[in-house]
Design goal:
Structural class: alpha/beta
Helix content: 25-40%
Strand content: 15-25%
Radius of gyration: 19 Å
Shape: globular
Largest sheet: 11 strands, mixed
Number of strands: 11
Distance between the termini: 22 Å
Length: 353
């Protein structure tokens, strides 16, 4: 392996890998984080994982739980040709030309265009009925002022939510409810907090649920009264589950988490609370794949893509930078490919104590 990919595993996962090697069919749960353009640094790693590794010779369904762009990536895995779906997603995501000052309506319209480009005529149906991939689209339904369509009321509600979350993450449940939209055959995930409820997906609700899952308040318009779910306004699932807490998934035999970084921040508001981060994430059954700090420092901007690039770079500069990061993501895929086909399944791997 080079120093591009960082692999962190729990002790139980390490024992499994030492005994059985890197068998994609052994992964029981796939996690996908929020993060906007950050997903681009996983581009070629996703192609390796989704193209053959995870689904080859699989007998038991794979649970794929994601919020925001994490679940959009999983939507590509649900397609008949996941790699081509990723190609379509990446192409339109990187190359879309926005107006000089796009508003929430414009950005939401772009989101629907991107999802339509990924799915085509039958992609939503494929996601709902996939026999071996159970998809879970995580959204956050606003409560009180956080369900308002008024920017002023929403601003007050979000400010209050941030303060309550700073006092105790559990208080955020008074402001948002976790609503999970699940594909056919999927058992309810093990979420126990935030008054979580699971809604059965229908093909006609897939795109709206995915749009809601990535709808950052004030940036996108969100979705109101999604079919099958409780009434109200639905926002980005990352508000509650930015990177996800890991306690929920301790019963899964093996959790694979391709991620943008080596620490996890449970909810969006926790980004401003460093003590809420898991450094490193502690879970016995976890396999975390992320770009290494050395690799990130070697990128053209010394960082992975993020939403600030829209403000700091011209459109052409942003596109060139994002394309270069996608190309560099080949190094992550090459490292992982060497690891899974090498003689030592734990070569270069960090095992959590």
């Amino acid at each position: 392996m080079s120093n591009a990919l960082q692999v962190i595993v729990g002790r139980g996962a390490a024992r499994h890998l030492a005994n059985s090697g890197w068998q994609g069919r052994d992964v029981s749960l796939l996690l996908g984080a929020s993060g906007g353009p950050k997903w681009l640094i996983l581009g070629h790693l996703d192609r390796l994982l989704f193209g053959s590794y995870l689904m080859q010779d699989r007998q038991e369904p794979l649970q794929a739980i994601g919020s925001s762009v994490g679940t959009w990536r999983h939507a590509c895995l649900a397609q008949d040709d996941p790699v081509k779906a990723l190609d379509r997603f990446e192409d339109i995501y990187v190359n879309w030309d926005y107006s000089d000052k796009p508003d929430a309506a414009e950005i939401s319209a772009v989101s629907f265009s991107i999802l339509g480009h990924i799915f085509g005529d039958s992609g939503a149906e494929a996601l709902v009925h996939h026999p071996l991939l159970h998809s879970y689209i995580v959204t956050a339904r606003g409560r009180g002022l956080n369900s308002s369509t008024s920017r002023l009321a929403l601003g007050v509600g979000m400010g209050g939510a941030g303060l309550l979350n700073a006092l105790d993450r559990r208080l955020l449940a008074s402001q948002f409810q976790r609503v999970v939209f699940a594909s056919r055959g999927a058992t309810a995930p093990l979420f126990r907090d935030f008054a979580s409820t699971t809604v059965a997906l229908e093909p006609e609700t897939v795109v709206r649920a995915l749009h809601a899952s990535g709808a950052i308040p004030f940036v996108l318009a969100g979705e109101r009264d999604l079919p099958g779910g409780p009434p109200g306004h639905y926002w980005d699932g990352g508000i509650i589950d930015y990177h996800f807490g890991l306690d929920t998934f301790r019963s899964a035999p093996l959790v694979l988490y391709p991620h943008f970084r080596a620490d996890l921040t449970p909810g969006w508001f926790d980004k401003f609370l460093p003590w809420r981060r898991y450094r490193p994430p502690l879970a016995d059954n976890l396999i975390l794949l992320s770009p290494s700090p050395t690799f990130i420092a070697s990128l053209p901007q010394g960082k992975i893509p993020d939403r600030s690039d829209f403000m700091k770079l011209s459109a052409d500069e942003r596109k060139d930078y994002w394309r270069s990061c996608v190309e560099r993501s080949r190094e992550l895929a090459e490292d992982f490919n060497k690891l899974i086909h090498g003689p030592d399944p734990l070569a270069g791997v960090t095992v959590l104590d």
